[in-house]
Amino acid sequence: MMHILTTGNPAYGLAAGVNNVLKSSFASRSTGYDLSTDDGMDKFCHIAVHCDVVILNCYTEKMNNYSQVRLLHKLYIDWQKNNKTGHVICIGSISDHINTEQPWLKYISYSSEKIALKQLCQTINHNRTNITPNIKCTYISLGHMHTPYVDNLHPDEPKLNTEYVATVIKWIIDAPECIEELTLTKDIHNG
Q: Please, where are the H alpha helices in 22-175?
């Protein structure tokens, strides 16, 4: 049986969609993991070494110090030291490649975090050739998703359903080959 570990609260956002579609354990402050601290990240990595798939979920407004890049780096180093076979799925954002005006610094840093996450995923996959052949990494560049926070922040933007995104994640997990990168946005022409 495959063991999946997902960052995020299983009652909210994409983690809730994953909770409805996949059998997963969850790591968030609500489950005793403060991933905005080094101790919380280390605790997460300690249990992640026993998982087949790890889904590194998005930043939330309430976790200003959470860094998917730092967490992925720590996880990768742990898996490499333990000669681990596994698949990491990183939830990115279309802000990694769409250059729009960002009036607030926190959104500029959000885009920078996603660009760095995308680059680290590419490096990990490049390392599959000679260094860590048993570690797969998938980066998913997502458009807006229906969550209370995003619905309030961007009321007129087309949004993805979180359960639909979770079914795409399941498809990636079940795929026979490593899907290294995927972009998923709401089709405004077809609803």
A: 38-48, 68-81, 105-127, 148-153, 162-174
Q: How far apart are CA 62 and CA 70, in angstroms?
A: 17
C-alpha R_g of the chain: 16
27/111: higher pLDDT: 27
Residue 124 to residue 88: CA distance in whole angstroms = 10
Q: Which residues contact 94 (CB under 8 A, 6 or more apart)?
A: 141, 142, 143, 183, 185
**Is residue 69 classed as helix, strand or coil in its secondary structure?**
helix
Residues 6+ apart with CB under 8 A from 131: 80
Q: In this model, does residue 66 exceed pLDDT 90?
A: no
What is the value of pTM for the model shown? 0.90
Helix crossing, 105-127 with 68-81: angle to 10°? 20
